[in-house]
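Appendix B. Raw example, untouched.
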Amino acid sequence: MRISIPIAFLPVAQGLNFGEPHQCSRLSTSSYVSFPGSPLFQSQQSGPGGYWSANEAEIVSGCRLAPRNVQEVSTAVKLLVHANCRFAVRGGGHMFWAGAANIQDGVTIDLSQMDRVVVSRDRKLTAVGAGARWQDVYSKLDPMNLSVVGGRVGSVVLANGQTVVASPQQHPDLYKALRGGGNNFGIVTRFTLRTFEQGRIWGGFILNPPNTTVENLQRLQEFNTASGNAVDRDATNNQVHLYDANGRSAVLNILVYTRPIKNPEILRPFSNLEPQMSNSMRITSLSEMTPQAVHGKSSERQKGDEERTARRLTYDSNAWASFSFANNATIIAHVLDLADEAFGPIKAIPGFSAFFSFQPISREIIQHMRSKGGNVLGIDPNRNIFWLNYGVSYSNAADDELVYSTTRSYFAKVEQYTRSMGQHERFIYMNYALPTQKVIESYGNVNGYFLRTVSRKYDPKQVFQKLVPGGFKLSPARPSEHGGPDSI
């Protein structure tokens, strides 16, 4: 049920009470408002277009506002701030932890209606609404033989309702802060992305048994080194080590080569590694491969073992965490060994499975990021590193605390070990992080100072620190900061 509320109700917004969901109706003009129990509310919570994780879907806001354009976002923000009402902002809905993009009894601004993908006439830029998902983008661009990478411009609604453009030329400090700073500055409603010619690709899944772990890790280290030396810029690999209640179950390599060339040399160490439980490598497209990477589903050519294993990456409840360390196969092997012991208390809980996704981040990637407007991540541009996306999936929310405490204990041991070996990297990737991880602090003191300075400039009343509790907030300023960044 969609309910459009007349503008005549607007003056009463200042009387909003969090415990009275019907008051949400007074916060909308032409935006769609939905309430708990309505079909639209349920669809935005847990339907096909809802939250990725049940942890988020279990949070019940007082209502959900679904603006369709930037003007409606601006109006909603002004009214919520005027009413001193807590709110959350949901874009694609992929953050796993409860309250990251949803809020109990407050108001959730749901951007899922703002999902348009528009290509410029010269085919050099693509405007993507903040509610779009990558499948929406690839489905639009693949038939045009185009693809995108990186952002040039963002449309941002600030705490006072003003809409500004953030780019390397306009509000460059805000642009840089948004590239890693999360939801601390405003609501991004549109991304404008660089667009380039892109035809078919060679890609898919290769599933190996767990006794190939050491060989797979060694080949992954060599791949990251080669990528850092720009040996072949067309290749990527995301290597995932899978666990079930019996221990290690498989090693999954998600390979992509951005040209339609079968079995290119740089990826042969993975494609030729035997034995293989399944192999779905083929000439394909990004739009065809995305559902496979997310759900373990693609074409009839995909083997049953691979599909069942890939589906283990998504269950009802999830606990994710992030970590970074040096490009070293021996270190990664021991990180996995530590998990064998750590999973003892939780591997028998209903629905248990786990994954360790190692994503190579070469120094060339970091150098390109720095040359395109910079960011606040604080990653050393002269080193090849790995980002780890760790995840545990399970069936019952009653096991949340056990899983979270096990995860915290495990990562404390990982950090102790990697520091002792001189292989620790401080960076924590925000989208994968456990809610208790100190993401902003991992960027370093100077970047933290910069983010707080930008926050005070564009949000002087600190609305996105006080009224938007979800996400990773900026830590309070230190007394020494009043002297400037050099004093940190």
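End of appendix B.
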